[in-house]
Specification:
Layout lengths: L1 E4 L2 E3 L10 E5 L2 E5 L7 H10 L7 E5 L5 H4 L2 H8 L2 E5 L3 H5 L12 H7 L14 E3 L10 E4 L8 E5 L4 E5 L2 E4 L2 E4 L8 H15 L5 E4 L9 H14 L3
Parallel strand pairs: 4-5, 5-6, 6-7, 10-13
Antiparallel strand pairs: 1-2, 2-3, 3-4, 8-9, 9-10, 11-12
The structure holds zinc ion.
Zinc ion binds next to helix 2.
């Protein structure tokens, strides 16, 4: 486990394809995203190895319901008994994983086939708590609804610690921030609008940004997201 800032760890035991995070607060720990189904065991082992009791994981917040973020959810919920939290719109995809529509139709069949494999299988989970844009969470986060990559995608902002947990609202690849244009993004114009929202409404409130994909930004995060927003929209004029 790698500390990003005090109180926030990346669970790097699952490798670098996708990131999930552990947040420490007064009542215990909150896990943010759960990797693929195959990653659940590594996450549980990492917690045990770091002497973090499984029952101390009080909540699991999903940025969205894609297989690389929610695949380990069913096993981790069972192991920790944590409360599962997601956006109200994303609930449907946790409960019925095959309803998630991705932009690229030709990927739908391979995705369906992959979901049959145990390593990538998505088991339905009923969330315990639904959240909406602007909601304040007991961990100190404000929920920022950032639809586009998926309809109920959320990012989490902690103003006190000046950190944004971006999920797949944007990614950091090759030293540059990008809107997530992957085949799995269901609505690209909305994804771009969400980056604009992060920049304009919250750009002064965070310094550190962590991503579902790509290394963290430890400084100037707000400025960099503002830069990406103006770059994206100025090219359209
Ligand atoms: Zn992802």
């Amino acid at each position: 486990m790698k500390q990003v800032i005090p109180g926030l760890w990346e669970i790097d035991e699952i490798g670098q394809d996708v990131h999930c995070y552990l947040w420490e607060w007064e009542q215990g720990y909150t896990l943010i995203d759960t990797g693929f189904a195959k990653d659940a065991r590594s996450i549980i082992d990492a917690l045990i190895r770091n002497k973090m009791a499984l029952h101390a994981v009080r909540r699991i917040i999903l940025t969205h319901a894609d297989p690389d973020h929610s695949g380990g959810l069913a096993q981790l919920k069972r192991a920790t008994q944590a409360e599962v939290v997601c956006h109200a719109v994303e609930k449907e995809y946790l409960e019925y994983p095959l309803r998630r529509q991705i932009s690229s139709w030709y990927m739908r069949l391979p995705l369906l086939a992959a979901s049959m494999l145990p390593d990538y299988h998505l088991r339905a989970v009923v969330p315990d708590l639904l959240v909406v844009d602007g909601q304040e969470l007991p961990e100190g986060f404000v929920v920022v609804h950032t639809p586009g990559h998926s309809p109920g995608h959320i990012s989490l902002l902690h103003r006190g610690k000046r950190v944004l947990i971006a999920g797949d609202a944007l990614s950091n690849r090759n030293g540059k921030l990008h809107v997530n244009k992957s085949k799995f993004t269901s609505d690209l114009p909305n994804a771009q609008r969400s980056i604009w929202k992060l920049a304009k409404r919250y750009g002064d409130d965070f310094e550190t940004v962590v991503f579902g994909h790509g290394p963290p930004l430890l400084s100037n995060g707000g400025k960099r997201v503002k830069g990406l927003a103006s770059e994206m929209f100025s090219s359209e004029v």
